[in-house]
Every structure is written in structure tokens, then in C-alpha cells.
Amino acid sequence: MTRCVNVFYNSITMEFVGIDTFSLLDFDNYVSVVLFTPTCNFRCPFCHNGETVLKSNKQIFFDEILTYLKSKKGLIDAVVISGGEPTLMPELKQRIQQIKKLGFLVKLDTNGTNPKCLKELIENNLLDYVAMDIKNSLPAYPKTCGVSQVNEGEIIKSIELLKDNKVPYEFRTTLVEEFHDEKSIKGVGELIIGAKILYLQKFVDRDGIIEKGLHEVPLEIAQNYQDLLEYYVNDVKLRGY
Q1: Which residues pair with 35 in a beta bridge?
Q2: Which CATH number fits domain 18-174: 3.40.50.1380, 3.40.50.10840, 3.40.50.2000, 3.20.20.70?
Q3: What is the 3-class SS of the chain, one letter each residue?
Q4: In order along the chain (241 residues), what is the average pLDDT of each group of 10 residues?
Q5: What is residue 13's predicted lDDT score, i.e. its pLDDT?
Q6: Torsion over CA of 30, 47, 89 and 108, rounded to 10 degrees?
Q7: Hey, what's the torsion of the CAs at 113, 114, 115, 121, to 10 degrees?
């Protein structure tokens, strides 16, 4: 039996490290609780959850989360599992099963580096929506993700898995002036060609960013990127602009 855990992590218990008890932004049309997992195999300079990714001693035991969710039945529609990178959590499948038993929808945020885990969750009908980050064109992935190497094959497998439309999904790219230009944006389009939808997200510099001093892409340029990508993707939307 496969497990939802990256090979670089062992099977010790991994607890959630953050919770947003009320969100109207993370899962469209649903009132959600957002759970944050620790650690990530990327170090994206523009990541908003730098403290979670780089260092977090906080733990929220899952029994406490279940108790909270039970108290909110009828008030909360969904649980969003974000990170960090959730597919690094060894207990992810079992925990989603428990959440689903309570009657909640589940959305997964992922960077797509663990298609084996993603496939298992989809095949077991444990996900109601998936949001996968497309960081950049493949040649620009390492720099954009703050790592020396990226397993491009795993990224492509996750993209193709979602494009099979077995679960509702979105691809999303956070636009950062220092990392994106017309050439790399065209590369994003080529990478996900034929996809249902891509959101181009506005970067916002705020507390928790791994690297300070980065800049948003202006609206006019974002709209130009949107026009370029409509050749490759069925629906391209701006988010946050």
C-alpha cells in the first residue's frame, strides 16, 4: 500500500502547525477551516508561510482539531489542507479520511512534487478540490523554488493527473517581478497546455515572506500575461488584482 509521504521524510508523527478557523477566501463558495502542515521541499523566496516552512515548534494535535471540527458542523463547509507541503505528512490520508467522515469537503493545496500521494487521494475519493502551484516554466523552477534541483518528471505527472479531470482542480501561479517574464510565462502555458483553468495571483509583500524586497507584477503586465496564456489554457483569471 502506498503512503502519502515523500521519500525524504520518515514516518514519525507529523502534527499540523497552524489553523485558520474561518476563511471565505481559500475555497470558493465555501466557509472553510484551513490547516497548515509543517516543512516543505521547496524554499520559494515569495512564500507567505516562511515561518511554517523554515522553522516551527508549534504543534496542534489532531484530536484537538477533530474536536473543534465536530463543534462546527453545520457552520463550516470545508477543510483546506495547506502548508508547507501537505503531501510530506505521513498521516495525511488517514487524517483526511477522518475529516471526510465528519461530512466536510476537503481541498488540498500542493506543489505537485508527490504525484503518488496525489493519485492515491484522488482514487480513494478523498479530495473535493485540488489547487496546484505552477511556480514557473520548468527551466526557471529551481530559482523560483529556491532549491538547486527539481524533479521535473514528478511535476509533470501531477499536472497530467489533474488534467484527467477526476477531481475539480485549478492551477495557480503567483506572479513575482523578479521571477516572471514573457518567456517564462509562455513556458508555464506550454507546461499545462490544455488545462481547464489557471489563476495568475498577485504577489503581496507581507510579514512571513522568506525573502524581503520582492515586487508584484503590475496589473497591465499581468493582463498581458493573461492574454498570452489564453492560447494554452481554456480559462485564465487574475486573482488579487
Answers
A1: 19, 81
A2: 3.20.20.70
A3: CCCCCCCCCCCCCCCECEEEEEECCCCCCCCEEEEECCCCCCCCCCCCCHHHHHCCCCCECHHHHHHHHHHCECCECEEEEECCCHHHCCCHHHHHHHHHHCCCEEEEEECCCCHHHHHHHHHCCCCCEEEEECCCCHHHHHHHHCCCCCCHHHHHHHHHHHHCCCCCEEEEEEEECCCCCHHHHHHHHHHCCCCCEEEEEECCCCCCCCCCCCCECCHHHHHHHHHHHCCCCCEEEEECC
A4: 41 81 93 93 89 73 96 96 94 97 98 97 98 98 96 98 97 98 98 98 89 95 98 97 96
A5: 75
A6: 20
A7: -140
The owner of cell 466536510 is 104
